[in-house]
Protein: HAD family hydrolase
Organism: Streptococcus cuniculi
Amino acid sequence: MTIENYMPDFVLEKAYDVTVESLQKYHIRTVFVDLDNTLIAWNNPDGTPEMRKWLHDLRDAGIHVVVVSNNKYERVKRAVERFGIDFEAFALKPFTVGIERAIKRFGIKREEAIMIGDQLMTDIRAAKRAGIRSVLVRPLIETDSINTQINRWRERRMMKKITAKYGAFDYKREM
């Protein structure tokens, strides 16, 4: 397990810092985005006005947004259906199951896709395995569901290794 398998291509404050302009600059036409603590706070299914504007801006620019979540189908559907975006539930990240399903289902080219997520151990690792670019963002809120708390413990250990070798991540406001 090399730490390079957990190194994101970009490190940003939040998903909404991924702008239409930056996606166009990197020729990205599809954004895969994690659900809990990335797109929405895990305990706030309604999202924020900022999130809705971000989704609207991407859609208007012709950029396809697909939520890729480890959550159950009903949970993801309930969270995203009001926003009119596609999703893959039960994605099994850090494996590529959900990403691969979305790539096939929508005919996505890997070089035109990016994965945005708040966890190194699931989101970034799955993107690396799938051969797509990745963006690590800070979690929207400090608390996590019980399942995520276990991953956070593993993530802290990996972060220490990354920081020792490369220095701490510098969270930016643009790609």
Q: What stands out?
A: The chain has six helices and six strands. The mean pLDDT is 91.
